[in-house]
Amino acid sequence: FSVLIVEVLNTSIEYVVDMFTDEYNLLAKHAKDTAALAVLLTSIIAAIIGIVILLPKII
User: pTM for this one?
Assistant: First the structure.
C-alpha cells in the first residue's frame, strides 16, 4: 500500500503545481521530478522487501 499512497501524493503535488503555474517553471519541474522520485524509491524498496520475504520460500 505504501507505493499507492506515495503515488496519490505524487498526483496531488502535480495537480497543485499545475494549478499555480501556467508556463514552464524550473522549480515546478523540480517539484514534479522529486515527487516522481519518491514513487520510484518506494517501488524499489517494496520490490526489495518482496524479494527478501518470497525468495527463501521459492528457493
Answer: 0.85
